[in-house]
Structure formats: structure tokens, C-alpha cells
Amino acid sequence: MPSETLTRVAPFLADLGITRVARHTGLDRIGIPVWCAYTPNARSIVVAQGKGLSDDDAKVSAVMEALERAVAGKPSVDTVQASARHLQDSGCRVEKLNCLIGRHKNDIGDDEEIEWALGRELLSGTEIYIPFEAAILDRTRECRFWMSSDGLASGNTLKEAMLHGILERIERDAYVLWQIGNDRDRHARCIDPRGFQDPALDQLIEKIETAGLGLRLFDMTSDIAVPCFTAILGPGDIHDDANVRFVEVTAGSGAHPSPVRAAIRAVTEAAQSRLTYISGSRDDILPETFLAPLPLQTRTLFQAVPAMPATMAPAYPQSLAQHLDYTLSALREKQIDQVIVLALSDPALPFSVAKTFIPALENPQGGQARRFGNRAVSKAIMS
């Protein structure tokens, strides 16, 4: 239960720099719960956000995001100083993660000595060394790798953190692939969220419509058979208003073995994104963002005509272990060869933080030297 999680982690918030948790829901007229947690001396962003179907859900979501960022800023991880060649000659598996090297930075050389951390590759169940620097989220330091929270996740247990991180990587990969191609193909994947006939999702839609806003939900599930959705939320009269700004249309995405839960995550994240701009408190958003016009491609998404969701299989995994097995099997079936997890938190803490790396999947736009991988290039060629 979310309240139990909060009770368990609350004594550790101050030590990890989290000074305040606040309810932001009332700053918007929708009423979908959104909370924030503040870490004034954070090594990355100061404000962490959380969303959910209830205040408890959203509050815990915000707190856990703040905790994972705090831990990732100073991970509790043992490292070794060595070269990739030395580790391999010693019989160790190595992944240099050159796909995440930052712009204008050099790839890791075979004979270059760096700090390595020992992670676990889940598909084979074997240990593997990765560059420690690739896991750090500390914007106060120079970093050779693209510094991102992508794949960073927390949970009550390590398995829960692993699942959240893997699902986020699958979601980000699906979003990149969904963006490749033409508007017609994207619009064809617009679905009516009421078609799920889920009371919780219906209640979210009712709140959005009552607030006078418009919603489009797109099924962006890729060849990896884990349901992924993205939700676009904007003014109800967007077709009649030529002056809609970039910040007035927000998006959210979600992935989960259950299509309904994936859709709920997407819709609640879109609502959370609105409050990001309304509150104006995120320190990673530049002032000029609020003056930028809405891109035409985003506006045209509201022209998509929703269809009923495809018939879904009646049974989905229910337990955490089943969710994890289902997700790993979906990756394995598409010949994804590595799912690497590095535990970052002190085992003595009553929660876990881990960073997940899946090199074969696409990454969101950021500061990496390699913008696209093989999956995106293949999709572009076939489109």
C-alpha cells in the first residue's frame, strides 16, 4: 500500500535532502492528483513530481522519484579501476555502453582504465561490468556519458525497481519508434480510452472533459509486446485557436503488461505535465519555453479519430514476479540481448533504487552522441 511505503521511507527523507512534499493538484482545474517533493541541494533537478489515482498514490510517487534521484547522485556502489581488456582477459563480461556516450566525448577504449561497477544481466542471469559513470545522476560534475534519469527507478524491493526501470526503457523506445513515420500512421493508432470500460480510466476522462480539455490516446506498442500508450492533453477548442502555446498541450506515456494500467499511466502523466508548467517550479524548464508556439505536428494529433481498442487477451500477469517474467520474455522474443541492472542504493535502506540499461533499445532525445540506434534506423528505412 502507498501509505505503508510512505511510512517506511519518511524517516530517511531529511538525510537524503528532501525537505518538503506538497500537493499541486489544486493549481489546475482537472483534479487528477499530482504531488511534488523538493530537494533544495539536489545534484540534479530540485523538484520531483508524482501522479496517481489518489493523493496517496501521487504523494508516494513524488517521494520515490526524489529518493531515486538523491541516491543516483551519490550511489552506494563498489567500483574497480581497470581497463575493459583487463576485465575481459580475467573472464569477466563487459558492456562499455558507448551508445550512451555524450556529445563530443570519446568512446571507451579497450585499454583505457576507468571505474567499473558490477551489474547483473537479467536475460542470462550473469554478472557484467559497466562504466560506473554511466549510472551517476550528478549535474554538478562533468560527465563523459549522457546524464539522464532514463531507466532510473525505485521500489519497495529491488525487483520492483527493476520492473519499473525496464518498463520505462520499453516505453521510451516505443515513443521514439512511434514518432518515426508519417502523421497518417500515427493518427491511425488513436484509440478511445472509454473502450477499455475501466471505471478508474473513465473517471480520469470525465475529469478531463469536465475541465473543458481535449484528450487523444495513442497505442504506440512496438514489436516488443508490452502495451505502451501516449496521451496528448490540450485545450478543448484547440482547432479554433491559432495561438495555442507549446506549454498548453502536454503529453504523458506509460508502459505496463496490463493495457489499462499503461493507459492510466499515460493519462495521469499528461495531467502531471500540465502542472509542471502551471506551477513553474521545475528548475530544468527555461523561461522561453512558455513563449514558444505549439508545433503544427502536435496540433494535428487532435485531428486523429479515436477507434475502439483492439480486443485484448483476457488474462494478464498479476504478481510482481509475473510482470517481470512477462516483460523479460517479451524482450527475449525480439532478440534483445542485454537487460542490465545496477543496484544503486544502500541495502540497509527500506527501499531500492536501480538503474536499468538496455543498449539495444532506443533512447529519448538528449545529449548523447548517437541520437538513434538500429531499431530506429530500421523503422525509418521501412517507413
How is the topology of this model organized?
Layout: H1 2-9, E1 20-23, E2 34-38, E3 47-51, H2 55-73, E4 79-83, H3 84-89, E5 113-121, E6 126-131, E7 152-155, H4 158-179, H5 183-187, E8 190-191, H6 199-210, E9 213-219, E10 228-235, E11 250-255, H7 259-279, H8 296-300, H9 320-333, E12 340-343, E13 352-357, H10 374-382
Antiparallel strand pairs: 1-2, 2-3, 4-5, 5-6, 5-12, 7-13, 8-9, 9-10, 10-11, 12-13
The top level CATH class name of the domain at 192-323: Alpha Beta
Taking all residues together, what is the mean pLDDT?
94
Instruction: Please state the structural category.
Output: alpha+beta
Number of strands: 13
State the separation between the terminal residues, measured CA to CA: 44 Å
Q: Work out the oligomeric state of the chains in this entry.
A: single chain
Task: Write the CATH fold name of the domain at 192-323.
Answer: Double Stranded RNA Binding Domain
CATH architecture of the domain at 192-323: 2-Layer Sandwich
- The gyration radius over C-alpha positions equals 21 Å
Helix content: 25-40%
List keywords for this structure.
single chain, 383 residues, alpha+beta, Double Stranded RNA Binding Domain
Task: Provide structural commentary.
Keywords: Plasmid. Residues 50-383 form the YcaO domain. Pfam families: YcaO (PF02624). This protein is α+β, with helices and mostly antiparallel strands. It has a domain at 192-323: 2-Layer Sandwich (Double Stranded RNA Binding Domain). The chain has ten helices and 13 strands. The protein has helices spanning 2-9, 55-73, 84-89, 158-179, 183-187, 199-210, 259-279, 296-300, 320-333, 374-382; strands spanning 20-23, 34-38, 47-51, 79-83, 113-121, 126-131, 152-155, 190-191, 213-219, 228-235, 250-255, 340-343, 352-357. The strands form three sheets. Strands 4, 5, 6, 7, 12 and 13 form a six-stranded antiparallel sheet that branches. Strand 5 and strand 6 form a beta hairpin. Helix 4 packs across helix 9 and helix 6 (199-210) runs parallel beside helix 7 (259-279).
